[in-house]
Amino acid sequence: MIAIADADIKQVQVVDKDGEIRPIIVWICGPDMYWADNMDGLFDNARRKKAPDWLKEQIAALPADRRFRSDGSLATESSGVTVVAQKADTDLPDFRQA
């Protein structure tokens, strides 16, 4: 059985308590939101932290002109990328598509 979740991983710049701007990694899946200092930390239970309410509110309120893709384009612009559904791998032993 395969399960799919609509998850989002974002790099976000925040201002810490000392006034320093620093990047963090935010993982969002449904109502759950966690953050870490880097990707390694995001996948480490000891270093991943639940996002505070202020971070959730600011990400939700972020205007469209401040949301960028990794290539620098705005998230509202069409990327021109077409997603093609791929068939299941048929060369794997005992693999059956559900």
Radius of gyration: 18 Å
Walk across the major sheet and give the strand order.
Answer: 1-2-3-4
CA(first)-CA(last) distance: 7 Å
- Binned, the helix content reads 10-25%
Main β-sheet description: 4 strands, antiparallel
Helix/strand/pairing category: alpha+beta
Structure report:
The structure is a single chain. With 98 residues, this protein is an alpha+beta fold. The protein has a domain at 7-66. The chain contains two helices and four strands, in the order βββαβα. The chain has helices at 39-42, 53-60; strands at 7-15, 21-29, 32-36, 49-50. The chain has a four-stranded antiparallel β-sheet. Strand 2 and strand 3 (32-36) form a beta hairpin. It starts with 6 loop residues before the first strand and ends in a 38-residue tail after the last helix.
Structure described in brief:
By secondary structure, the chain is an alpha+beta fold. The chain has helices spanning 39-42, 53-60, and strands at 7-15, 21-29, 32-36, 49-50.
Brief descriptors of the model:
98 residues; 2 helices; 12% helix
Provide the fold topology.
Elements: E1 7-15, E2 21-29, E3 32-36, H1 39-42, E4 49-50, H2 53-60
Antiparallel strand pairs: 1-2, 2-3, 3-4
